[in-house]
Amino acid sequence: MSDDEIARGYPCDDFVTSPTLKAWRGVTVEAPVDAVWPWVVQLRLAPYSYDWIDNLGRRSPREPVALPDPRVGDKFTAAGGRELGRIVSVAPGEQLTAAIMGAFMSYVLVPRDRDTSRLLLKVVMRTNRLVAIGVSVGDLLMARRQLLNFKQLAERHRR
């Protein structure tokens, strides 16, 4: 993550004042934003990280599924056949922000040039310091895998 990416405002910041946990992740995707956005939208179907851990071994879809753009109030994701979290803010093609288990997270798409984009994720949470440390370590592993999966899928299926 660059200093500019960390310093920018994220929609999740509007939902948590004085967070004890702030975590940023980002990947460069060799595909335009419009090839990455459909994969972010597919978070509603599955978590796209380590399926054997957070999806009870069920594989997250590896082919694009035609889904409408999400709306505020829609479920955020599904894991192990259960709906989890809610979408709290969305700007189609630009950002999706959700709340899950006390954390708020924003997925933000930033175009770099015609064929490259950045997929950024910021997670904020107000909790005690010990929980924040545990969540941060877990988020590092799971969110990194999720973003890398989206990168791989968007690059493979780019328009």
Q: Can you walk me through this structure?
A:
This protein has 159 residues and is an alpha+beta fold. The chain has helices spanning 3-7, 33-41, 51-54, 129-156; strands at residues 21-29, 75-79, 82-91, 95-100, 103-113, 116-125. The chain has a six-stranded antiparallel beta sheet, with helices on one face. α2 packs across α4 (129-156). The protein is globular, with a radius of gyration of 15 Å. The mean pLDDT is 85.
Quickly list its features:
single chain, globular, alpha+beta, about 160 residues, six-stranded antiparallel β-sheet
Fraction of residues in β-strands = 25-35%
Total strands: the figure is 6
Helix-and-strand structural type: alpha+beta
Gyration radius, to the nearest Å?
A: 15 Å
Query: N-to-C SSE series?
Result: HEHHEEEEEH
* Low-confidence regions: none
Mean pLDDT: 85
Whole-Å distance between the termini?
Answer: 26 Å
Task: Give the oligomer, counting copies of the same chain as homo and different chains as hetero.
Answer: single chain
**What level of helicity do the residues show?**
25-40%
**Describe the biggest sheet?**
6 strands, antiparallel
How many distinct helices?
4
Strand order of the largest sheet: 1-6-5-4-3-2
Shape: globular
